Amino acid sequence: MDHKAICKQAMDALFKDFDADALRHCLTENYIQHNPHVPSGRDAIINLLPMLKGAGFTYETHRMLEDNDLVLTHTTYRNADVFGAKTVIAFDIWRIQDEKVAEHWDAIIPEHETTASGRSQTDGPTEINEHDKTEENKALVKSFVSDVLIDGQIDKMGKFLQDDLYEQHNPVVEDGPDALKKALTQIQNDRIHRVIGEGNFVLTQSEGSWDGKPVAIYDLFRVDAGKIAEHWDVIQEIPAEMAHANGMF
């Protein structure tokens, strides 16, 4: 099975079929967890199944990227009060090892009924193309996040963004570079932990601060004709205490 199929099999067992035996088969015995509220280990995930099933939990994946041993999913979870709200939006990263899921990172945010741009947090293009430009697009996005979002070189923004096409899905930020410049007065990216890409889609997993609070920042960018044309994100506060010692990164 390819890595996307392995990931989907695990997500179905966990979020759709609530099948303990199937889930046990999908996860490594020493499964490593980075969600701050769920203990590490395979048994901790299996123990969630009755709660998820009882809540009528459902999921819908909008985008799935594969980059070597990592699979990224962009997903809406419903009846998800266990994760903080009735409906939540998440980016999940799954590491595949020996045809099983061995490690998991995520960031989760409640769904917003209205957004500054009028777009939802998940709509927009889903088709992956430009497979031959994956590494080129990853380098472009990494440079944008490093130079503009981390180092604050706002004058370089035009080098990376398409002025007339930069479409925003962050619920409180409007379209275009000017709105992004304003948002950067509130949020600060400090460090990139991972860059995951497939074709024209690239995600950066970073840590930083929002209004002075430490946050995990997942930014997904769509690249078109060598520039960034569209952006989705999930920003989650990093709690002071976690259910494990693995951290969120």
Which descriptors apply to this entry?
249 residues, alpha+beta, Nuclear Transport Factor 2, Chain: A, 5-stranded mixed sheet, 10 strands
Short summary:
The protein is built from seven helices and ten strands.
Describe this protein's structure.
Helix 1 (3-15) runs antiparallel to helix 2. The protein has a 5-stranded mixed beta sheet with strand order 1-5-4-3-2. It has a 5-stranded mixed beta sheet with strand order 6-10-9-8-7, with helices on one face. The chain is built from 7 helices and 10 strands. It has 2 domains: 3-110, Nuclear Transport Factor 2, Chain: A, CATH 3.10.450.50; 131-237, Nuclear Transport Factor 2, Chain: A (Roll), CATH 3.10.450.50. The chain has helices at 3-15, 20-26, 42-46, 49-55, 134-150, 157-160, 177-183; strands at residues 27-33, 58-67, 70-78, 87-97, 100-110, 167-168, 187-198, 201-210, 213-224, 227-237. Strand 9 (213-224) and strand 10 (227-237) form a beta hairpin. The mean pLDDT is 97. The protein is α+β, with helices and mostly antiparallel strands and 249 residues long. The chain is 24% helix and 38% strand. The protein is globular, with a radius of gyration of 18 Å.
C-alpha-based Rg, rounded: 18 Å
Q: Looking at the structure, what is the overall shape?
A: globular
**What is the H/E order?**
HHEHHEEEEHHEHEEEE
Sheet with most strands? 5 strands, mixed
Number of domains: 2
- Secondary-structure-based class equals alpha+beta
The CATH topology of the largest domain? Nuclear Transport Factor 2, Chain: A
**How many DSSP E strands?**
10
CATH architecture of the largest domain: Roll
Give the overall average pLDDT.
Answer: 97
Instruction: Estimate what percentage of residues fall within beta strands.
Output: 35-45%
Neighbour order of strands in the largest sheet:
1-5-4-3-2
What is the count of helical runs?
7
End-to-end Cα distance: 27 Å
Ranges where pLDDT stays below 50 over 5 or more residues in a row are none
**CATH class bucket of the largest domain:** Alpha Beta
Give helix % range.
Answer: 10-25%
